Amino acid sequence: MQSYTEENYLKIIYHLAEKTTNVQTNAIAEQMQTKPASVTDMIKKLADKGLVDYVKYQGVTLTETGRNAAIDIVRKHRLWEVFLVDKLNFKWDEVHDVAEELEHIRSIELIERLDEFLGFPKADPHGDPIPDKNGRFAKTQFIKLIELKVGDTGTITGVSQHSSAFLKHLEKLGLTLGKKIKISDVTDFDGSVEIQLADKQVNISREVAKHILISSNGKN
Amino acid sequence: MQSYTEENYLKIIYHLAEKTTNVQTNAIAEQMQTKPASVTDMIKKLADKGLVDYVKYQGVTLTETGRNAAIDIVRKHRLWEVFLVDKLNFKWDEVHDVAEELEHIRSIELIERLDEFLGFPKADPHGDPIPDKNGRFAKTQFIKLIELKVGDTGTITGVSQHSSAFLKHLEKLGLTLGKKIKISDVTDFDGSVEIQLADKQVNISREVAKHILISSNGKN
DNA sequence: AAAAATTTTTAGATTTACCTAAAAATTTAA
DNA sequence: TTAAATTTTTAGGTAAATCTAAAAATTTTT
Ligand SMILES: [Mn+2]
Ligand SMILES: [Mn+2]
Ligand SMILES: [Mn+2]
Ligand SMILES: [Mn+2]
């Protein structure tokens, strides 16, 4: 059994490993909002417990056991987010912090029943896939909106930035999950993108476009 | 803001204070499953924080602030128990341990919305009253079943023992919350009680009868 | 009102998860 | 390929919540 802190480390290492091959001490420290020296201490402990492979100065990798533990936390986090949005009417920008706490509740039975109660959802309110009880989930095949060309169409199916400010901004623009879009223009000057929605046209900055994920209906 | 451990101490002190005027170090230690020496340490800390009044060797009392904090934990515990039973189909003997964890989740918004989602329940699955968001709840006026006389009638509205073994036993006998009962006999020899239910007659030991709470329809 | 039993507190350690400052290793730049 | 910059680790410490063993206070019994 892991402590809450150990669980948080495992989850963060897991998420970092999705982006970079080599998970570095400093990166973990930043995510954990702690100091590199503390990370080294914890990594040693996780290595002793067989949850990560660790070679001094060479970064860290999750073991099979460690990855399974991490995926379990991610599963819980995302199921709780669905609960908060679907059942308690939270907004998609309000759920993350509470889910950070709820993800540590230790009861297999609870999560199985919650999953069932929610109708075995496949994705959380941000479009992220929810692992099933065996830790399996479909590799999502999203394209960043920024990569689309003028004329391309698609559906918003995820975001790669979960800050409340960003999510509220999208909400205000009407760029929520499930919305069908078409790229009507890309400005050379600042890279901002003009998007055609069903009922209106909106303009988003390049920075925003980077963090919207699209399941493409096919390129133009 | 209190740590999980501090919250557990406050809750236990609150519950002990319901039974005895003077809450003793040893009693707290037993409930917390820890040693008296550790309790003394923690009591000092709680006293420093203004959550309890403490005089060496004279036991401990909750301050206004401490009691409010305790009641808030109790509220959360009981609301989560209702959620587990009403929404996730847990049995009344399965919810306590999970609620022990859930009660520490820190989000006022979460609890308000959960309360609403559950329909502002007044009692938890064991018949215990749920404080409202201002910490107010009706003082329950229950009588122990053991105190009833032959011919008395009433409704089962609570239990004063929450162990799984006890609750499962009641379940098997059909002695669940809301059931109407009539005392048909009390055995002199062992104090066991014969109870008339709507559809059947059951016999319970004196020990069991002590822990069933009745809202009396009036004595005979 | 002593003596005995019980309860509570103190003293001194331990463990977990941190920290700062300094040393060591690795990577990047000149 | 040295020198400089960056990253990572080690060394030594702190605070929270525990513990055991022993001392002190309180309560109960004789
Ligand atoms: Mn989240
Ligand atoms: Mn999410
Ligand atoms: Mn309970
Ligand atoms: Mn209860």
UniProtKB/TrEMBL annotation, chains A, B:
Q: Which InterPro entries match?
A: DtxR_MntR_Metal-Reg, Fe-transptr_FeoA-like, Fe_dep_repressor, Fe_dep_repressor_sf, FeoA_core_dom, HTH_DTXR, Iron_dep_repressor, Transcriptional_repressor_C
* Recorded GO MF terms: DNA binding; DNA-binding transcription factor activity; protein dimerization activity; transition metal ion binding
Q: Where in the cell is it found?
A: Cytoplasm
Q: Which family does it belong to?
A: Belongs to the DtxR/MntR family.
SUBUNIT field:
Homodimer.
- What exactly does this protein do? In the presence of manganese, represses expression of mntH and mntS. Up-regulates expression of mntP.
Could you tell me which SMART domains the record lists for this protein?
FeoA (SM00899), HTH_DTXR (SM00529)
Organism from which the protein derives: Pedobacter soli
What is one cellular component GO term in this UniProt entry?
A: cytoplasm
The main place the protein resides is cytoplasm
Q: What is this protein called?
A: Transcriptional regulator MntR
Q: Which UniProt keywords apply?
A: Activator, Cytoplasm, DNA-binding, Iron, Manganese, Repressor, Transcription, Transcription regulation
Q: Where in the numbering of this chain does the HTH dtxR-type domain appear?
A: 1-63
